Amino acid sequence: MKKLKINKYAFLLLQFLFFVVINKVSAQEKEEAEELVKLNYFTINNGVQYLILENSLKTGRKIEPLKNKVFQLYLNSNLPENLIGKISTDKNGNAKSFLPLSLKTAWTESSKHTFIAVALGKEDEIAAELAISKSKIKLDTLTTEGIRNVTVQVMQLTNSVWVPAADVEMKVGVQRLGGILSAGDEETYTTDSSGTASLEFTKDSLPGDQKGNLVLVAKIQDNDLYGNLIVEKTVPWGIVVKPNTSFFEQRTLWTTRFRTPIWLLIMAYSIFIGVWGTIIYLITQIVQIKKLGLAVPEKEV
Fold first, then answer.
1. How far apart are the first and last CA of the chain?
2. Single residue among 133, 163, 194 that ends a domain in this structure
3. Containing H/E element for 37?
4. How far is CA 163 from the centre of its chain?
5. What CATH number is attached to the domain comprising 178?
6. Residues 91 and 175 in one domain
7. Is the domain of 211 the same as that of 152?
8. Which residues contact residue 78 at a Cβ distance below 8 angstroms, ignoring those fewer than 6 apart?
9. Among candidate residues 163, 161, 182, 162, the one with its CA nearest the CA of residue 171
10. Do 183 and 140 fall within a single domain?
């Protein structure tokens, strides 16, 4: 009877596992691949403007970049006269395009614009859109009684007038190899009603270049209204870093042959002299043996 109960429970467990596997397989079959197209707008130092298109294929939780996909970018409407350019995605699914000079008039006429991406061969189907408002960043520095301060102001163009942009989150810091190191105590800063964010520069011991210069950066990232804005400014707030040339003048294993360590030279020359000395000694012995053989008189018959 006990064995019968165990078999019953085992049968129910197997039935449960069977339904779980079936449901999982059916869920995977129901997952449909979705192509994602995203536009990103960038402005560098309030001058250079460009777009980056991201194209990928999403299947469930898996996202795979699509390469060699061709798109056409337009400004405000997908008409031939508003064509920004034709781009093709790379192995990472990204493509970059700058705004041409031919659209300068259309760009200056309005404070708001919409970028449109259309896949090649699908002129009537819009793959992605991005609406942005014209904006700019002003980065200023001030030193008062030894205290270094950084002030960032964000402005938005409205009805041909630059007005402060409030509640804009951004990063303010020093450009390093790994990214942007915050210049103050906070990771990000938000503008007030005057469009301004101020902070005290607390990174006093950062190494700079050979002149002690650091690159300050104010960066707005993936903002719904303004896109991505980056402004840089060079300031002499770093520690002067001079190249250590004496390091290359030392006798080390990785320097040139003229800076080889003494102990390595002694070892190498000792091996060289030992090997060739042995060879020369053997040759002289063979020559002497040959001479002694010629000097022995032949026995008279």
1. 118
2. 133
3. strand 34-44
4. 33
5. 2.60.40.10
6. no
7. yes
8. 72, 116, 118, 123, 126
9. 182
10. yes
Q: Hey, which bits of the chain come out as E strands?
A: 34-44, 48-59, 62-65, 70-75, 83-88, 94-98, 112-119, 126-133, 135-144, 147-158, 161-164, 169-176, 179-182, 189-190, 196-200, 214-223, 227-235
147 and 223 fall within a common domain: yes
pLDDT tens figures, 166-196: 999 999 999 998 889 999 999 999 999 999 9
Q: pLDDT class for 4, splitting at 50, 70, 90?
A: very low
Element of type H or E holding 288: helix 262-295
Asked if residue 71 lies in contact with residue 53, where contact means CB atoms within 8 angstroms, the answer is yes
Q: Which residue has the tokens 């395009």?
A: 97
105 Cβ contact partners less than 8 Å away, ≥ 6 residues apart: none
Looking at the structure of the chain, the number of domains it has is 2
Question: Which amino acid, one-letter code, is at 27?
Answer: A
Write the CATH number for 39.
2.60.40
CB 148 within 8 A of CB 111: no
Sign, CA dihedral 170-73-102-111, equals negative
Query: Do 50 and 125 lie in a common domain?
Result: yes
Q: Which residues of 190-206 are buried (b: 16+ CB within 10 A; e: fewer)?
A: ebeeebbbbbebeeeee
Q: What is the pTM (predicted TM-score) of this model? A: 0.70
Summary count for the chain: helices (H), strands (E): 4, 17
End position of a domain, from candidates 235, 252, 283: 235
Structure tokens belonging to residue 229? 């804005």
Residue at token pair 């069977």? 18
Tokens of 263: 């102990």
Phi and psi angles of residue 209, each rounded to the nearest 5 degrees, phi first = -90, -160
Residues 262/269, Cβ–Cβ less than 8 Å: no
Tens of pLDDT, residue by residue over 97-114, are 999 999 999 999 999 999
Q: Which domain holds residue 74?
A: 34-133
